[in-house]
Amino acid sequence: MLAELKAIDINDPVSRLRSFIAEGGYKAGGRLPPERELTDELGMTRSTLRKALDALEREGAIWRHVGKGTFVASAANGRSSGGALVELGRQLTPFRMMRARLAIEPAIAKEAAINASGAGLTHMNVAMERAHSASNWQDYETQDDVFHRAIAEASDNLLLLSLFDQLNVVRRAVAWGSVVRQSEKPTADHSSFREHEAISAAIEKRDPDLAYEAMRSHLRSVAARLFGEV
């Protein structure tokens, strides 16, 4: 199969991974091979593979569950069911997007406080640490995505996780052109660092109401910072 993938685009790891999924006949809900097998099959380093997996996850083509593996989220090529969500995102304002997050993500955090496993808590904390050490905004935002999705995973509810993934596909399609960064990377006192810690602490304390309020406060803070209103 590797020879076929090389004929497609050997220089684009994301295209190679996407083609591997399509050619391998993986259907919605299908689990991909472990990373070790994928690196051998695709001839990639683990670091390159993980970046390609991150890219497909941001597209909504796959989703990952700690301790269970990586799964195909839509059709085999990762495009069909996401198309309508992407189109929806293009019609949505960033403000409306944040209002939708405020309606959904605090409730997910509340469920995470009830159901989070030790592995789920670790996944959240690792994402926070990587966000702190991010060298640019893109790396920070990748880890921010991982953190919020780890909370959805920790809810231990596949329907809530699916809703979160669909919300995320729409969020990525929203035009955020009005957002202007004033620095190369988040500063040490970036408010989201404290807010993420508060969310994680509430979930670790198994306090559903505190987790709900911590997530709501975080999202309202983000909205106020980006748009000056909530």
What keyword list fits this structure?
globular, Four Helix Bundle (Hemerythrin (Met), subunit A), 2 strands, mainly alpha, 11 helices, single chain, Arc Repressor Mutant, subunit A, two-stranded antiparallel sheet, 230 residues
Topology:
Elements: H1 2-9, H2 13-23, H3 35-42, H4 46-59, E1 62-65, E2 69-72, H5 80-90, H6 94-115, H7 118-132, H8 137-154, H9 158-173, H10 191-204, H11 208-227
Antiparallel strand pairs: 1-2
Short characterization:
This protein is mainly alpha-helical and 230 residues long. The protein is built from eleven helices and two strands, in the order ααααββααααααα. The longest helix has 22 residues, at 94-115.
Give a written overview of the molecule.
With 230 residues, the chain is mostly helical. The protein has 2 domains: 71 residues, Winged helix-like DNA-binding domain superfamily/Winged helix DNA-binding domain (Arc Repressor Mutant, subunit A, Orthogonal Bundle); 148 residues, GntR ligand-binding domain-like (Four Helix Bundle (Hemerythrin (Met), subunit A)). It is built from 11 helices and 2 strands, in the order ααααββααααααα. Strands 1-2 form a two-stranded antiparallel ribbon. Helix 2 crosses helix 4, helix 7 runs antiparallel to helix 10 and helix 10 packs antiparallel against helix 11.
